[in-house]
Design a protein that fits this description.
CATH topology of the largest domain in chain A: Fumarylacetoacetate hydrolase, domain 2
CATH architecture of the largest domain in chain A: Alpha-Beta Complex
Number of strands of chain A: 20
Helix content of chain A: under 10%
Shape of chain A: globular
Oligomer: homodimer
Distance between the termini of chain A: 33 Å
Chain lengths: ~250, ~250
Protein backbone atom coordinates (compact mmCIF):
# COMPACT_ATOMS: atom_id res chain seq x y z
CA UNK A 1 0.00 0.00 0.00
CA UNK A 2 0.96 3.62 -0.50
CA UNK A 3 0.54 6.34 2.14
CA UNK A 4 0.99 10.08 2.12
CA UNK A 5 0.37 13.41 3.82
CA UNK A 6 -1.43 16.14 1.95
CA UNK A 7 -2.83 19.64 2.08
CA UNK A 8 -5.96 21.04 0.52
CA UNK A 9 -7.29 24.55 1.22
CA UNK A 10 -5.01 24.88 4.23
CA UNK A 11 -6.16 21.60 5.78
CA UNK A 12 -3.53 18.90 6.34
CA UNK A 13 -4.52 15.23 6.23
CA UNK A 14 -3.10 11.73 5.86
CA UNK A 15 -4.26 9.39 3.15
CA UNK A 16 -3.94 6.16 1.22
CA UNK A 17 -2.97 6.56 -2.43
CA UNK A 18 -4.57 4.36 -5.09
CA UNK A 19 -3.67 5.09 -8.70
CA UNK A 20 -4.35 8.82 -9.13
CA UNK A 21 -6.58 9.16 -6.08
CA UNK A 22 -6.09 9.63 -2.36
CA UNK A 23 -8.49 8.31 0.28
CA UNK A 24 -8.54 10.56 3.33
CA UNK A 25 -7.78 8.98 6.72
CA UNK A 26 -9.02 10.28 10.08
CA UNK A 27 -5.54 9.96 11.63
CA UNK A 28 -1.92 9.35 10.67
CA UNK A 29 -1.40 6.00 8.95
CA UNK A 30 1.24 5.34 11.63
CA UNK A 31 -1.48 5.01 14.24
CA UNK A 32 -4.97 3.52 14.38
CA UNK A 33 -6.98 5.08 11.59
CA UNK A 34 -9.84 4.59 9.20
CA UNK A 35 -10.95 6.05 5.88
CA UNK A 36 -13.26 9.05 6.19
CA UNK A 37 -14.94 8.26 2.88
CA UNK A 38 -13.50 11.39 1.22
CA UNK A 39 -11.68 10.58 -2.03
CA UNK A 40 -9.69 13.26 -3.85
CA UNK A 41 -7.79 13.41 -7.08
CA UNK A 42 -4.02 13.61 -6.46
CA UNK A 43 -3.92 16.64 -8.74
CA UNK A 44 -6.22 18.55 -6.37
CA UNK A 45 -3.91 18.26 -3.34
CA UNK A 46 -0.44 19.41 -2.38
CA UNK A 47 1.85 16.52 -1.48
CA UNK A 48 3.61 17.12 1.88
CA UNK A 49 6.51 15.19 3.40
CA UNK A 50 4.76 11.89 4.20
CA UNK A 51 5.84 11.91 7.82
CA UNK A 52 7.10 14.37 10.47
CA UNK A 53 9.72 12.36 12.33
CA UNK A 54 11.05 13.08 15.80
CA UNK A 55 14.47 12.40 14.41
CA UNK A 56 16.23 11.35 11.25
CA UNK A 57 19.45 9.41 10.94
CA UNK A 58 21.48 8.69 7.84
CA UNK A 59 24.26 6.23 7.15
CA UNK A 60 27.72 7.29 6.02
CA UNK A 61 29.79 4.88 3.92
CA UNK A 62 27.13 2.23 3.37
CA UNK A 63 27.91 1.41 -0.28
CA UNK A 64 31.37 0.21 -1.36
CA UNK A 65 31.18 2.35 -4.49
CA UNK A 66 30.95 5.50 -2.30
CA UNK A 67 34.06 4.73 -0.24
CA UNK A 68 36.62 6.03 -2.76
CA UNK A 69 39.22 3.49 -1.67
CA UNK A 70 38.59 3.77 2.09
CA UNK A 71 38.06 0.48 3.92
CA UNK A 72 34.43 -0.38 4.75
CA UNK A 73 33.25 0.64 8.23
CA UNK A 74 33.48 -1.95 11.03
CA UNK A 75 29.95 -1.02 12.09
CA UNK A 76 27.12 1.16 10.74
CA UNK A 77 28.14 4.85 10.81
CA UNK A 78 24.98 6.89 11.46
CA UNK A 79 24.74 10.64 11.77
CA UNK A 80 21.78 12.90 12.53
CA UNK A 81 19.84 14.97 10.02
CA UNK A 82 17.58 17.42 11.80
CA UNK A 83 13.85 17.60 11.06
CA UNK A 84 13.88 21.32 10.29
CA UNK A 85 15.66 20.38 7.04
CA UNK A 86 12.71 18.25 5.88
CA UNK A 87 10.86 19.07 2.66
CA UNK A 88 8.52 17.10 0.43
CA UNK A 89 8.04 16.20 -3.22
CA UNK A 90 8.07 19.24 -5.50
CA UNK A 91 9.38 21.53 -2.74
CA UNK A 92 12.39 23.70 -3.53
CA UNK A 93 15.91 22.85 -2.33
CA UNK A 94 17.52 26.16 -1.36
CA UNK A 95 21.25 26.06 -2.03
CA UNK A 96 23.13 28.38 0.37
CA UNK A 97 25.33 30.66 -1.71
CA UNK A 98 28.31 30.37 0.64
CA UNK A 99 28.87 26.66 0.00
CA UNK A 100 31.11 25.90 -2.94
CA UNK A 101 29.87 22.42 -3.73
CA UNK A 102 26.51 20.84 -2.97
CA UNK A 103 25.63 17.30 -4.06
CA UNK A 104 22.41 15.29 -4.23
CA UNK A 105 22.51 11.78 -2.76
CA UNK A 106 19.78 9.31 -3.75
CA UNK A 107 18.80 7.03 -0.89
CA UNK A 108 16.21 4.56 0.30
CA UNK A 109 14.67 5.89 3.52
CA UNK A 110 12.97 3.63 6.04
CA UNK A 111 10.23 4.81 8.37
CA UNK A 112 9.88 3.32 11.85
CA UNK A 113 6.42 2.02 12.77
CA UNK A 114 6.98 0.80 16.33
CA UNK A 115 9.16 2.11 19.15
CA UNK A 116 12.45 0.27 18.87
CA UNK A 117 15.02 -0.27 21.63
CA UNK A 118 17.51 -3.14 21.75
CA UNK A 119 15.96 -4.77 18.69
CA UNK A 120 17.66 -7.89 17.33
CA UNK A 121 18.31 -7.95 13.62
CA UNK A 122 16.10 -11.02 13.11
CA UNK A 123 13.12 -9.00 14.39
CA UNK A 124 14.02 -5.66 12.81
CA UNK A 125 11.50 -5.68 9.95
CA UNK A 126 8.64 -5.76 12.49
CA UNK A 127 9.68 -2.24 13.52
CA UNK A 128 9.56 -0.76 10.04
CA UNK A 129 6.37 0.80 8.74
CA UNK A 130 7.53 1.39 5.19
CA UNK A 131 9.92 3.01 2.74
CA UNK A 132 10.24 6.25 0.84
CA UNK A 133 12.74 8.03 -1.40
CA UNK A 134 15.19 10.46 0.14
CA UNK A 135 17.76 12.95 -1.03
CA UNK A 136 20.58 13.46 1.47
CA UNK A 137 21.64 16.89 0.18
CA UNK A 138 25.27 17.45 1.16
CA UNK A 139 27.49 20.55 1.16
CA UNK A 140 30.91 19.01 0.59
CA UNK A 141 33.08 21.91 1.71
CA UNK A 142 31.26 22.12 5.06
CA UNK A 143 31.37 18.34 5.37
CA UNK A 144 35.16 18.54 5.14
CA UNK A 145 35.74 21.77 7.07
CA UNK A 146 33.29 21.69 9.97
CA UNK A 147 33.73 19.66 13.14
CA UNK A 148 30.32 18.02 12.59
CA UNK A 149 28.02 17.67 9.59
CA UNK A 150 25.24 19.83 11.05
CA UNK A 151 24.89 22.40 8.22
CA UNK A 152 26.56 20.14 5.62
CA UNK A 153 23.65 17.69 5.87
CA UNK A 154 20.88 19.62 7.69
CA UNK A 155 20.70 23.14 6.34
CA UNK A 156 17.06 24.11 5.76
CA UNK A 157 15.58 22.12 2.80
CA UNK A 158 18.49 19.61 2.74
CA UNK A 159 16.26 16.59 3.47
CA UNK A 160 13.66 15.99 0.74
CA UNK A 161 11.63 12.80 1.27
CA UNK A 162 8.62 11.34 -0.48
CA UNK A 163 6.42 11.50 -2.36
CA UNK A 164 4.79 8.57 -0.52
CA UNK A 165 5.59 5.76 1.87
CA UNK A 166 5.10 2.23 0.59
CA UNK A 167 5.01 -1.02 2.53
CA UNK A 168 4.67 -4.69 1.60
CA UNK A 169 7.83 -4.60 -0.54
CA UNK A 170 11.23 -6.26 -0.28
CA UNK A 171 13.59 -3.32 0.44
CA UNK A 172 16.74 -5.37 -0.10
CA UNK A 173 16.68 -5.59 -3.87
CA UNK A 174 15.59 -2.24 -5.30
CA UNK A 175 17.15 -0.21 -8.10
CA UNK A 176 17.93 3.38 -7.10
CA UNK A 177 18.45 5.99 -9.80
CA UNK A 178 19.61 9.57 -9.32
CA UNK A 179 18.85 11.98 -12.16
CA UNK A 180 19.91 15.61 -12.54
CA UNK A 181 18.41 17.63 -15.40
CA UNK A 182 17.42 14.42 -17.17
CA UNK A 183 20.86 12.82 -16.93
CA UNK A 184 21.37 9.68 -14.85
CA UNK A 185 24.14 10.43 -12.32
CA UNK A 186 23.69 7.59 -9.84
CA UNK A 187 22.60 3.99 -10.25
CA UNK A 188 22.76 1.24 -7.66
CA UNK A 189 20.77 -1.49 -6.01
CA UNK A 190 19.89 -1.67 -2.32
CA UNK A 191 21.34 -5.21 -2.34
CA UNK A 192 24.76 -3.52 -2.42
CA UNK A 193 24.45 -2.00 1.06
CA UNK A 194 27.39 -2.82 3.33
CA UNK A 195 25.28 -2.82 6.50
CA UNK A 196 21.86 -4.37 5.94
CA UNK A 197 18.69 -2.68 7.17
CA UNK A 198 18.20 -5.22 10.01
CA UNK A 199 21.81 -4.91 11.21
CA UNK A 200 21.52 -1.12 11.10
CA UNK A 201 18.37 -1.12 13.24
CA UNK A 202 19.96 -3.53 15.69
CA UNK A 203 23.02 -1.32 16.05
CA UNK A 204 21.25 2.04 16.30
CA UNK A 205 18.53 0.83 18.67
CA UNK A 206 21.14 -0.52 21.06
CA UNK A 207 22.03 3.09 21.91
CA UNK A 208 19.30 5.38 20.61
CA UNK A 209 15.59 4.57 20.91
CA UNK A 210 13.85 4.77 17.55
CA UNK A 211 10.37 6.27 17.77
CA UNK A 212 7.30 5.92 15.56
CA UNK A 213 7.84 8.01 12.42
CA UNK A 214 11.61 8.28 12.77
CA UNK A 215 13.44 8.00 9.46
CA UNK A 216 16.73 6.37 8.52
CA UNK A 217 18.43 7.30 5.26
CA UNK A 218 20.30 4.12 4.31
CA UNK A 219 23.29 5.59 2.44
CA UNK A 220 24.30 6.56 -1.04
CA UNK A 221 26.31 4.89 -3.78
CA UNK A 222 29.06 5.94 -6.16
CA UNK A 223 29.83 9.59 -6.69
CA UNK A 224 26.84 11.82 -6.06
CA UNK A 225 25.95 14.53 -8.55
CA UNK A 226 26.54 18.22 -8.00
CA UNK A 227 23.44 20.43 -7.98
CA UNK A 228 23.17 24.10 -8.83
CA UNK A 229 20.45 26.71 -8.79
CA UNK A 230 17.86 25.90 -11.47
CA UNK A 231 18.57 22.17 -11.56
CA UNK A 232 15.88 19.50 -11.34
CA UNK A 233 16.90 16.51 -9.24
CA UNK A 234 15.08 13.17 -9.13
CA UNK A 235 15.50 10.21 -6.81
CA UNK A 236 13.71 7.22 -8.28
CA UNK A 237 13.45 3.92 -6.44
CA UNK A 238 11.93 0.80 -7.94
CA UNK A 239 8.50 0.05 -6.41
CA UNK A 240 8.87 3.02 -4.04
CA UNK A 241 8.46 6.16 -6.09
CA UNK A 242 9.97 9.15 -7.77
CA UNK A 243 10.93 12.19 -5.68
CA UNK A 244 11.37 15.38 -7.70
CA UNK A 245 12.80 18.66 -6.42
CA UNK A 246 14.03 21.80 -8.08
CA UNK A 247 16.97 23.79 -6.76
CA UNK A 248 17.06 27.52 -6.17
CA UNK B 1 10.66 33.97 36.49
CA UNK B 2 11.06 30.22 36.74
CA UNK B 3 9.18 27.74 34.54
CA UNK B 4 8.89 23.97 34.54
CA UNK B 5 7.07 20.89 33.34
CA UNK B 6 5.65 18.48 35.85
CA UNK B 7 3.69 15.30 36.40
CA UNK B 8 1.18 14.46 39.08
CA UNK B 9 -0.92 11.27 39.09
CA UNK B 10 -0.06 10.63 35.46
CA UNK B 11 -1.10 14.13 34.35
CA UNK B 12 1.55 16.32 32.71
CA UNK B 13 1.38 20.09 33.05
CA UNK B 14 3.46 23.25 32.73
CA UNK B 15 3.86 25.67 35.59
CA UNK B 16 5.51 28.71 37.12
CA UNK B 17 7.70 28.00 40.13
CA UNK B 18 7.67 30.35 43.12
CA UNK B 19 9.74 29.33 46.12
CA UNK B 20 8.62 25.78 46.92
CA UNK B 21 5.35 25.97 44.97
CA UNK B 22 4.28 25.55 41.38
CA UNK B 23 1.36 27.41 39.82
CA UNK B 24 -0.27 25.31 37.11
CA UNK B 25 -0.61 26.86 33.63
CA UNK B 26 -3.26 25.94 31.06
CA UNK B 27 -0.65 25.66 28.28
CA UNK B 28 3.11 25.55 27.74
CA UNK B 29 4.86 28.69 28.99
CA UNK B 30 6.34 28.94 25.49
CA UNK B 31 2.92 29.87 24.10
CA UNK B 32 -0.01 31.97 25.27
CA UNK B 33 -1.04 30.72 28.67
CA UNK B 34 -2.64 31.62 31.96
CA UNK B 35 -2.62 30.29 35.50
CA UNK B 36 -5.38 27.77 36.22
CA UNK B 37 -5.48 28.73 39.88
CA UNK B 38 -4.12 25.33 40.99
CA UNK B 39 -1.07 25.66 43.25
CA UNK B 40 0.94 22.61 44.25
CA UNK B 41 3.87 21.99 46.52
CA UNK B 42 7.00 21.12 44.51
CA UNK B 43 7.40 18.03 46.69
CA UNK B 44 4.07 16.68 45.45
CA UNK B 45 5.04 16.65 41.76
CA UNK B 46 7.60 14.92 39.58
CA UNK B 47 9.87 17.37 37.77
CA UNK B 48 10.06 16.58 34.04
CA UNK B 49 12.46 18.00 31.43
CA UNK B 50 11.17 21.60 31.26
CA UNK B 51 10.75 21.51 27.49
CA UNK B 52 10.42 18.95 24.67
CA UNK B 53 12.44 20.53 21.86
CA UNK B 54 12.18 19.69 18.17
CA UNK B 55 15.94 19.67 18.12
CA UNK B 56 18.94 20.25 20.31
CA UNK B 57 22.32 21.55 19.29
CA UNK B 58 25.48 21.77 21.34
CA UNK B 59 28.72 23.65 20.81
CA UNK B 60 32.07 21.93 20.57
CA UNK B 61 35.20 23.83 21.61
CA UNK B 62 33.51 26.90 23.06
CA UNK B 63 35.76 27.45 26.09
CA UNK B 64 39.54 27.94 25.71
CA UNK B 65 40.17 25.76 28.74
CA UNK B 66 38.55 22.78 26.92
CA UNK B 67 40.71 23.06 23.80
CA UNK B 68 43.76 21.22 25.17
CA UNK B 69 46.14 23.26 23.08
CA UNK B 70 44.09 23.26 19.86
CA UNK B 71 43.49 26.63 18.26
CA UNK B 72 40.05 28.18 18.88
CA UNK B 73 37.47 27.52 16.14
CA UNK B 74 37.08 30.13 13.38
CA UNK B 75 33.31 29.90 13.80
CA UNK B 76 30.86 28.23 16.22
CA UNK B 77 31.07 24.43 15.89
CA UNK B 78 27.59 23.02 16.59
CA UNK B 79 26.56 19.39 16.53
CA UNK B 80 23.17 17.77 17.06
CA UNK B 81 22.01 15.99 20.20
CA UNK B 82 18.82 14.07 19.52
CA UNK B 83 15.71 14.56 21.65
CA UNK B 84 15.33 10.86 22.48
CA UNK B 85 18.37 11.34 24.74
CA UNK B 86 16.55 13.93 26.88
CA UNK B 87 15.95 13.36 30.60
CA UNK B 88 15.06 15.66 33.48
CA UNK B 89 16.20 16.49 36.99
CA UNK B 90 16.55 13.40 39.21
CA UNK B 91 16.23 11.01 36.23
CA UNK B 92 18.86 8.30 35.88
CA UNK B 93 21.72 8.52 33.40
CA UNK B 94 22.21 5.01 32.00
CA UNK B 95 25.86 4.41 31.18
CA UNK B 96 26.20 1.86 28.34
CA UNK B 97 28.56 -0.87 29.49
CA UNK B 98 30.40 -1.04 26.16
CA UNK B 99 31.84 2.47 26.39
CA UNK B 100 35.14 2.69 28.22
CA UNK B 101 34.97 6.30 29.30
CA UNK B 102 31.94 8.52 29.83
CA UNK B 103 32.23 12.11 31.04
CA UNK B 104 29.75 14.66 32.36
CA UNK B 105 29.92 18.16 30.83
CA UNK B 106 28.29 21.05 32.71
CA UNK B 107 26.72 23.58 30.36
CA UNK B 108 24.37 26.53 30.16
CA UNK B 109 21.49 25.62 27.83
CA UNK B 110 19.41 28.26 26.09
CA UNK B 111 15.82 27.69 25.04
CA UNK B 112 14.44 29.34 21.90
CA UNK B 113 11.20 31.31 22.33
CA UNK B 114 10.56 32.52 18.79
CA UNK B 115 11.20 30.93 15.40
CA UNK B 116 14.64 32.13 14.32
CA UNK B 117 15.99 32.29 10.76
CA UNK B 118 18.73 34.65 9.60
CA UNK B 119 18.81 36.42 12.94
CA UNK B 120 21.43 39.12 13.43
CA UNK B 121 23.49 38.92 16.61
CA UNK B 122 22.24 42.33 17.79
CA UNK B 123 18.66 40.95 17.83
CA UNK B 124 19.49 37.44 19.10
CA UNK B 125 18.31 37.82 22.69
CA UNK B 126 14.76 38.51 21.44
CA UNK B 127 14.64 34.91 20.23
CA UNK B 128 15.61 33.34 23.55
CA UNK B 129 12.93 32.36 26.02
CA UNK B 130 15.24 31.44 28.88
CA UNK B 131 18.03 29.30 30.27
CA UNK B 132 18.46 26.00 32.03
CA UNK B 133 21.24 23.69 33.21
CA UNK B 134 22.43 20.90 30.93
CA UNK B 135 24.74 17.95 31.11
CA UNK B 136 26.24 17.01 27.75
CA UNK B 137 27.05 13.41 28.65
CA UNK B 138 29.86 12.22 26.37
CA UNK B 139 31.29 8.78 25.63
CA UNK B 140 34.88 9.64 24.80
CA UNK B 141 35.87 6.42 23.03
CA UNK B 142 32.90 6.69 20.64
CA UNK B 143 33.59 10.38 20.17
CA UNK B 144 37.05 9.48 18.92
CA UNK B 145 36.27 6.26 17.05
CA UNK B 146 32.93 6.90 15.30
CA UNK B 147 32.49 8.94 12.14
CA UNK B 148 29.92 11.15 13.90
CA UNK B 149 29.05 11.81 17.54
CA UNK B 150 25.59 10.27 17.34
CA UNK B 151 25.89 7.72 20.19
CA UNK B 152 28.82 9.52 21.86
CA UNK B 153 26.53 12.46 22.66
CA UNK B 154 22.98 11.15 22.11
CA UNK B 155 22.67 7.66 23.57
CA UNK B 156 19.42 7.38 25.54
CA UNK B 157 19.61 9.50 28.77
CA UNK B 158 22.72 11.42 27.60
CA UNK B 159 20.98 14.82 27.69
CA UNK B 160 19.80 15.80 31.17
CA UNK B 161 18.35 19.32 31.35
CA UNK B 162 16.55 21.24 34.07
CA UNK B 163 15.27 21.42 36.66
CA UNK B 164 13.61 24.65 35.46
CA UNK B 165 13.94 27.38 32.85
CA UNK B 166 14.66 30.89 34.09
CA UNK B 167 14.43 34.15 32.20
CA UNK B 168 15.17 37.78 33.05
CA UNK B 169 18.82 37.04 33.82
CA UNK B 170 22.11 38.06 32.22
CA UNK B 171 23.42 34.77 30.75
CA UNK B 172 26.85 36.17 29.96
CA UNK B 173 28.29 36.24 33.45
CA UNK B 174 27.23 33.12 35.32
CA UNK B 175 29.35 30.72 37.38
CA UNK B 176 29.00 27.09 36.29
CA UNK B 177 30.03 24.34 38.68
CA UNK B 178 30.22 20.62 37.93
CA UNK B 179 30.20 18.30 40.92
CA UNK B 180 30.63 14.52 41.00
CA UNK B 181 30.00 12.70 44.29
CA UNK B 182 30.37 15.96 46.18
CA UNK B 183 33.68 16.90 44.58
CA UNK B 184 33.94 19.97 42.34
CA UNK B 185 35.33 18.80 38.98
CA UNK B 186 34.50 21.79 36.76
CA UNK B 187 34.33 25.51 37.41
CA UNK B 188 33.97 28.27 34.86
CA UNK B 189 32.03 31.39 34.00
CA UNK B 190 29.86 31.86 30.92
CA UNK B 191 31.83 35.07 30.25
CA UNK B 192 34.66 32.77 29.08
CA UNK B 193 32.75 31.46 26.05
CA UNK B 194 34.70 31.83 22.80
CA UNK B 195 31.57 32.34 20.69
CA UNK B 196 28.97 34.46 22.46
CA UNK B 197 25.32 33.44 22.61
CA UNK B 198 24.25 36.13 20.07
CA UNK B 199 27.00 35.19 17.59
CA UNK B 200 26.08 31.52 17.96
CA UNK B 201 22.41 32.18 17.20
CA UNK B 202 23.35 34.34 14.22
CA UNK B 203 25.57 31.62 12.80
CA UNK B 204 23.25 28.66 13.38
CA UNK B 205 20.11 30.45 12.19
CA UNK B 206 21.79 31.38 8.93
CA UNK B 207 21.60 27.70 7.94
CA UNK B 208 19.22 25.91 10.27
CA UNK B 209 15.90 27.40 11.41
CA UNK B 210 15.58 27.40 15.18
CA UNK B 211 12.08 26.57 16.36
CA UNK B 212 10.20 27.40 19.57
CA UNK B 213 11.51 25.14 22.32
CA UNK B 214 14.74 24.19 20.57
CA UNK B 215 17.73 24.00 22.91
CA UNK B 216 21.35 24.96 22.46
CA UNK B 217 23.98 23.61 24.85
CA UNK B 218 26.62 26.34 24.88
CA UNK B 219 29.77 24.28 25.50
CA UNK B 220 31.85 23.02 28.37
CA UNK B 221 35.03 24.19 30.04
CA UNK B 222 38.23 22.56 31.21
CA UNK B 223 38.45 18.81 31.56
CA UNK B 224 35.11 17.21 32.22
CA UNK B 225 34.74 14.61 34.95
CA UNK B 226 34.39 10.88 34.36
CA UNK B 227 31.16 9.30 35.61
CA UNK B 228 30.57 5.71 36.63
CA UNK B 229 27.62 3.65 37.75
CA UNK B 230 26.47 4.82 41.19
CA UNK B 231 27.83 8.36 40.85
CA UNK B 232 25.81 11.48 41.57
CA UNK B 233 26.48 14.32 39.14
CA UNK B 234 25.40 17.93 39.63
CA UNK B 235 25.43 20.84 37.21
CA UNK B 236 24.93 24.06 39.15
CA UNK B 237 24.60 27.42 37.43
CA UNK B 238 24.37 30.70 39.28
CA UNK B 239 20.82 32.13 39.15
CA UNK B 240 19.69 29.23 36.93
CA UNK B 241 19.53 26.14 39.10
CA UNK B 242 20.98 22.86 40.19
CA UNK B 243 20.49 19.79 38.01
CA UNK B 244 21.09 16.49 39.82
CA UNK B 245 21.26 13.07 38.19
CA UNK B 246 22.45 9.69 39.37
CA UNK B 247 24.21 7.24 37.11
CA UNK B 248 23.39 3.58 36.67
Amino acid sequence: MKFGRFEINGKIFYGIVENDHVHELDNSFLYENKKTGVKLNLEQVKILPPVIPNKMLALAKNYSSHLQGESPPRQPEPFFKTTSSLIGHNDKINLPDDSERIDAESELVLVIGKKAKNVQSKDAFEYIFGYTCGNDVSARDWQKGDKSWWRAKSSDTFSPIGPFIVNEINPENLEITGVINGEIVQKCNTSEMIWSIPKTIEFISKYVTLEVGDCIFTGTSGTAGQIKSGDEVIVEIENVGKLINNCS
